[in-house]
Amino acid sequence: MLNRTPNQTSLQPLTTIATFVELLAWRAEQTPQGTAYRFLAEGTPETAQTITYSDLQQRAQAIAVLLQELNCQNQPVLLLYPAGLDYIAAFFGCLYAGAIAVPAYPPRPNRSLDRIQAMVQDAGATVALTDSVTLQKLERRLAETPQLRSLYCLSTDGLQPDLAQQWQPPTIQAHTLALLQYTSGSTALPKGVMISHDNLLHNSELIGRCFGNTAASRGVSWLPPYHDMGLVGGILQPLYVGAEMTLMSPVSFLQRPVRWLEAISHYRATTSGGPNFAYDLCGRKTTPEQRRALDLSCWQLAFSGAEPVQQATLTQFAAAFAPSGFRPQAFYPCYGMAETTLLVTGEAVQTEPKHLILKATNLQQNRVTLVPPTDADAARPIVSCGPPAIPNQVVIVDPDSHRPCPPNTIGEIWVRWSRSIAQGYWRREAATQEAFQATLADGEEGLFLRTGDLGFLYGDDLYVTGRLKDLIIIRGRNHYPQDIEATAEQAHRALRQSSGAAFSVMEHDTEHLVIVHELERSALRTADPEAIFAALRRRVAEDHDLQVGAIALLKPNAMPKTSSGKVQRHLCRSMFLDGQFDVVYGWPTAETSQALAIAEAPVDGDGEAIASENLSQPEVDAKSLAVASPAASPLNSPDAIADWMLTWLADALNVPKHTLNVRQPLAEHGLDSLAAVELAEALESTLGVPLSPTLAYEYPTIEALSIYLVSAQNRATVTAPPVEVVDQRELEQIVRELELLSDAEVQTLLGRQRY
């Protein structure tokens, strides 16, 4: 059972600690040889690397010396590392220098630097820290980007430990900024949440108390360290309570989701979790034999956040892993965001999560009406995210009148000020005032944070129903529709400018991206729809790491717009779901659209879809697909392997097989990072040889990949492509945009960082 009473011996001195620099110094003094973190380089215990509190402090101080020489105190410093111990050391190096850490992630090869460029410009960063492998790959690209040429990049993995002797303690206090957590999935308007040491310490105390974490707890996390849930929950929380923590990279989890569960079983972890899609992925990507080999009876708290929690996912996961010893009472749905440092609400420990069955049509009118679960057609289950960690901290407010909503009414979730509320948005006074300094119309004193989320209180529990605005959340990563629309209108000359809408719809608890766009009048008779569809899928995948679920091409002036000419996204979504558009060309085909059943997707009270997960994922695991895939002959020739991949990709991308070209780059088919990793895993299972999880990036066409795989079979083992040795850091770098929880990207897991 969880120890619900904090370990006083471990936590009592924390009442006198004001910064995380003091905290790490205290841990290094009390237990210098205690293991601070364990990192599974390839997702398995055999590849574990460890660092003690003493070694972590020494490495942090050595990095701080470099930053102090560059006068970085109170200045933002960009972190461009793959997941690993180097990232953790660099983060604390920033704190030890009195600098402001800006967590980021290295871009994948041949992908845009727009997000890094936007973050650098917004933060005003002039210094970036990374490792030598990443630096080697970034130097040329940075030099070719005018806005990034002045960014001074330093690699920290080769520093001599004795450099730490030159460290001088900076002048920092509780209110000193520790980091800028960039929440936006947007490349155009990123916003850095200003988080102080006191914010981090206060929210760490809340998490420890609500989760029941103590020094005796053991954690496992694959969550990206550059998102709030991975950083605050996965790295800072164990340091706060003095608990043992095992980490792995997001790509290790995505490649083989069972690795997460195997680590929990092997290290007897008590606390671990992730976004809803992670539990769904584990259920779909593990076999009964793998589940029986696990012992999850140690797992006492399985938190679920960063995206809406689905009752069906909880039920299916609990049933699938009951033979492994998993108990439904371990689930811990919770809610939070970067603007609150992390946690706001959480379900009671060791109680099965509560949920309500609500009338779906009334939800669209912002009304909460309970119905019997037998009324399946009109019912929608909503999972409780638990009560506020601080009593009476959450208020449901009418977003227009700023008055508290009456009972059984959906409104905007406002969070009353506490020490966990961040300092605002970096260099954005207007946005800070609007979001962080809201007041109620009834004159009640105090400031509130406007979350932009919709929900209601039932008893003491918070239920989240959707988003007030147009934010799209897929695989825990936030995407702004205006960014996707800007990409779409540039994808093909036949598409009319400023005449497209991007939104999401939900089917089977999975979020799908939909693009509706007008054609140019001159293209109505001459347009090649397949070329337009392919161009849209390719550009969206390249720029946003998203797969498109459906496309509707319309005649000019068919989109609903405001009097000022602005596209009305909400109305577009409703018209799409109701089949009101006169579609000139549509994708997928009518048969596929019927299978997708988009028109039956439930929506929230503001007409927005509210779930997120990877869209158009294969619905079967790699091994079952390998068995089901047609193969007239053994897969021992390039043609046979190419045909197998065409079948797999057609299913994964939801496109006709004949539209795929073996000589066309895979990226141009609209393959996102998760699907690319899944393809490599499916090939590995089918061919029986170990393969790089980023094979689809290393051999960019089906033809090239097929030829390589034949030679791989002949050698009987493949660990890396012959043209270039790709180590784990590079593999992690290539699929950095997770989201998982995974903007992804986990941007989140996790874009606006829903916890």
Instruction: Specify the number of helices.
Output: 25
Overall pLDDT confidence: 83
% residues in beta strands: 15-25%
User: Which structural class do the helices and strands define?
Assistant: alpha/beta
Radius of gyration: 25 Å
Large-scale geometry? globular
Characterize the biggest β-sheet. 4 strands, mixed
Q: What is the annotated CATH architecture of the domain at 477-600?
A: 2-Layer Sandwich
What percentage of residues falls in helices of 4 or more residues? 25-40%
CATH level-1 class of the domain at 477-600: Alpha Beta
CATH fold descriptor of the domain at 477-600: GMP Synthetase, Chain A, domain 3
How many strands appear in the DSSP assignment? 26
The CATH homologous superfamily of the domain at 477-600 corresponds to: ANL, C-terminal domain
Uncertain stretches of 5 or more adjacent residues: 1-11, 591-633, 717-755
Terminal CA distance reads: 24 Å
Give the strand order of the largest sheet, numbering strands 1, 2, ... along the chain.
2-1-10-9
